[in-house]
Amino acid sequence: MPAETFQRRYRFASLQRLAKLLFGTPLNAVLTLIFSALLIVTLPPVVRWLVIDAVLFDPDPNACREAVGACWSFIYAKSGQLLFGIYPITERWRPGIVCLLILVLLGWSVRPASWTARLLALWLATLALVFWLMGGGFGLTEVPTSSWGGLPVTLILTVVAIGIAFPVGILLALARRSTMPAVRIGAVVLIEAVRGLPLLSILFVASIMMPLFLPEALLPDKFVRALVALTIFAAAYLAEVIRGGLQAISKGQYEAAAALGLPFWRTQYLVILPQAIRVVIPALANTVIVMIKNTSLVLVVGLFDLISSGKAALADPEWPSPAAETFLFIGAIFFALSFSFARFADFLERRGPASH
Q1: How far apart are CA 246 and CA 171, in angstroms?
Q2: How far apart are CA 106 and CA 154, in angstroms?
Q3: Mean of pLDDT over the chain
Q4: In whole angstroms, what is the distance from residue 252 CA to residue 275 CA?
Q5: Which residues contact 149 (CB under 8 A, 6 or more apart)?
Q6: Is the separation of the CB atoms in 94 and 133 below 8 Å?
Q7: For residue 184, which of 192, 174, 193 has the smallest C-alpha distance?
Q8: For 131, what's the count of Cα atoms within 13 Å in the CB-facing half-sphere?
Q9: What is the pLDDT of residues 36-75, one digit of tens each?
Q10: pLDDT tens across 158-190, in order?
Q11: Phi, psi of 149, deg, nearest 5
């Protein structure tokens, strides 16, 4: 068969499949027409506002006041403040390197070939470098955590809180299923107490109540307090997710491990936990994505995340305060982080039961 004939037949078969998908049933046909009409009505004005009539790189604030489209020049002019908050302007190269380090290491960590003990050492070394760059000292100008903000705060809080909360959640899940009453009751009380409170209330306790009970010398930095609150909150939810995975493992797995003479911790590490965690990958991914977005609540302890930095940038009286463009930009960053982790969770699910 000639190549051109094959290509024509392939294209025709593809069109047939598409037509069947869109108009194969009366309901599909009606839905296709409705959504097509909505796209025809809404898409052109949205494109005009986003691109055609938009002000892209004009540094003059008056250009945005006169424009009928989006004011992307505000995002361009305020990108440093949006991404790094109130961090000193002359030192913003440091949070820029921090963001690059964390994102590159996150990208490296999703490779199965990197899942070795060296990866943990690399993360610990990178986080030590991150806190040195952000806080200063040892040759760098010191910058207090009250001046941190933007994307670095979101990334650091997410990575550290989830990184600590995951193993703590595993221990809490195992403790809640323990046969020792004191261990089981303690885990139940902690998990249910944390899950019964909104994250805002836990952050309020960390920011308002702790200074009332602790002397100034023993009071942790507010960034540390926010980090501890997020970690405890995430650990409680992750513990319940992992406990659901443990309950899904059949009794025969425990009996087989016992028949091989494996002790408790080796049974959990080699047999039970790999299967249990794989079962609850979608729920784990959902919890992590929620925690990524929950970092925006740290404003109550005086920290400036992405959303807080955006609000601060909008307060500039020289600009017409393009809120829609600002929150679209911030939302795109949160979407990129959340969507990337969701794709990673899908990848883990597709690896199959033989690749724990």
Answers
A1: 12
A2: 14
A3: 89
A4: 13
A5: 84, 85, 86, 87, 303, 304, 305, 308, 309
A6: yes
A7: 174
A8: 10
A9: 899 999 999 999 999 998 998 887 888 888 888 899 999 9
A10: 999 999 999 999 999 999 999 899 999 999 999
A11: 180, 170
The dihedral formed by the CA atoms of 43, 49, 51 and 54, expressed in degrees to the nearest 10: 180
Are 61 and 318 within 8 A, CB to CB? yes
Contact assessment for residue 226 and residue 149, using Cβ atoms and an 8 Å cutoff: no
H helices of the chain, in order, are 3-23, 26-47, 61-66, 72-77, 79-84, 93-109, 117-135, 151-176, 181-195, 199-204, 210-213, 222-247, 251-259, 264-267, 273-279, 281-294, 306-314, 323-350
| 221 secondary structure, DSSP code | P
Question: How many other CB atoms are there within 10 angstroms of residue 196's CB atom?
Answer: 9
Rounded mean pLDDT, 14-41: 84
Alpha helices for 48-116 (secondary structure H): 61-66, 72-77, 79-84, 93-109
Q: Cα–Cα distances in Å, from 261 out to 136, 180, 247, 254, 340? A: 51, 22, 22, 11, 41
Dist CA 169 CA 174 (whole Å)? 9
Radius of gyration over every alpha carbon of the chain, rounded to an integer in angstroms: 26
Is residue 191 within 8 A of residue 165, CB to CB? The reply is: no
Report angle CA 120, 241, 233 to the nearest 5 degrees.
70
Neighbouring residues of 70: CB distance < 8 A, sequence distance ≥ 6: 49, 50, 53, 54, 55, 322, 324, 325
CB 86 within 8 A of CB 312: yes
The amino acid at residue 94 is R
Tokens of 12: 């025709």
